[in-house]
Every structure is written in C-alpha cells, then in structure tokens.
Write a structure and sequence with these properties.
Elements (H helix, E strand, L loop, with lengths): L10 E4 L9 H6 L1 H4 L3 H22 L5 H15 L7 H8 L9 H10 L3 E6 L3 H10 L8 E4 L10 H11 L6 E5 L2 H10 L2 E5 L15 E3 L5 H6 L3
Parallel strand pairs: 1-2, 1-4, 2-3, 4-5, 5-6
Helix pairs in contact: 3-4
C-alpha cells in the first residue's frame, strides 16, 4: 500500500523484536557452533518464546521476557538435541546484541527529523530493551522505550497498548503502530491505533478482530506515508 497517506499522526510506536531488531541474528551469530541447525533453532526459539507469553498471560502466571526467552531456548535446544557447553549463555547474551534490519536507522532518522515522536512498545524487559537499543546505536532516538513489565502482562492485552498513549500523551488515533508480527498489528488496531503491518516475512492475513490500515514490506515505506501527510 505504497500510496496510502496517513494524516494526523503525531507519534510512531514500534514493536521491537522482528520489527526493529532481527531476532534471527542471535542464532546466526552462533552459526560456528550451530552449523546448519541455526535456522531451525532460531525459528523454534521464537515460536516457543511467543507461545509462552500467551500461555502465561492466559494462566495468570507472568514471568518477565528474559525468563521466557531462556525457557524457550532451553526447550528448543532440548528438542533439537543440541548440547554444547556455554552455548546457552552465549545465545542469551547475543539476544542483547541483536542487529537491526537494514532500513531501520535511516527510517528513524527521517521520522525524527520530521518532528515525529518515536517510541518502542515491547514484551522485552527494561534491561533487555536498554541493552539492545544501546548496542544497536539507537540511544537518544526514542522519546520512550516501553516495556510490558509496567503492567505485568504480555501483548496482546489491551493494557499494554494503552501504555503508549498514556506515556506519550497522544490519543490512540494519532499513533501509528508498526509491527511485523501480524497478531500484534491486528491486536493494536483493535485497541484503536492506526496500524501499518510491516509484513517482512510475507505472512498470510490473520483471522482475528480488526484489520491494519495498511501493509508494508519494510519500514523504509513509512516516512513518505506520514511526513508528506503531516
């Protein structure tokens, strides 16, 4: 939807993992130990990580994202029968040093230059988010880096999305929310944000309530859609 123009937007709020930061980069960086298993491990790790957030939310048994990420990694290593001394600790550390997708830095620069408020809204803990933002050279870019730990429940609970409008003091309808996770994009739209689904991985559309306002392949399409409409 490259021709879509979104007017009245005062803030852009980004999901972190999979949208700004490449979660595959952790396992890829350990390819010297993982070999051809790196991709399978990365995919299973991510799948279980998300499943555990949803299951904990439904069960009312919250644990922070660092624990969930470690639990998901343990499951994945055991399932794939990967047993290498020190590998778990290495992969967890690499998760604090995830790379950004190629267009991220320039996209954020353009939005900031246009006077747009910028924020992250993530399942990650404050410590995890501070580390990955700093390690990727994005210090000072965001007006807020928001963690679900402020409300004690993971996405897609509506109280998580409310964090952004409350902290930024911007109405939901004046926030453009970006996520590459389809379930997150659809849920944010149901909350009341304007939403662009960054469909990096050519996923099929979800069959859950609400539909994003538009779909983009990566974040480089974002500035012209907002800045020219401002």
């Amino acid at each position: 939807m490259a021709t879509l123009q979104m007017s009245g937007i005062e803030a852009c709020v980004f999901d972190a993992y999979g949208t700004l930061f490449d979660f595959n980069s952790a396992a890829l960086a350990a390819r010297d130990e993982l070999g051809d298993d790196w991709q399978r491990l990365s995919e299973l790790w991510r799948q279980k990580q998300l499943q555990y957030t949803w299951l904990r939310g439904l069960a009312g048994r919250h644990a922070d994202f660092w624990q969930v990420t470690g639990d998901a990694l343990d499951f994945s290593l055991a399932t794939l029968k990967i047993d290498s001394p020190g590998l778990r600790a290495r992969l967890m550390d690499l998760y604090l040093h995830l790379g950004t997708y190629p267009e991220v830095a320039e996209t954020l620069r353009q939005l900031k230059a246009a006077g747009m408020k910028l924020a992250i809204l993530s399942n990650g803990t404050p410590t995890m988010l501070a580390a990955v933002v700093t390690n990727s050279g994005l210090d000072g870019v965001f007006d807020a880096v928001l963690s679900v730990e402020a409300v004690g429940v993971f996405k897609p609970h509506p109280s998580v999305y409310a964090l952004a409008s409350d902290r930024l003091q911007v109405a939901p309808a004046a926030i453009c929310f970006l996520s590459s996770n389809a379930w997150d994009a659809y849920s944010a739209k149901a909350f009341g944000f304007r939403v662009l689904w960054c469909n990096r991985f050519a996923q099929a559309a979800e069959r859950i309530p609400a539909t994003p306002d538009g779909e983009i392949g990566d974040l480089s399409a974002l500035p012209p859609m907002l800045v020219s409409a401002a």
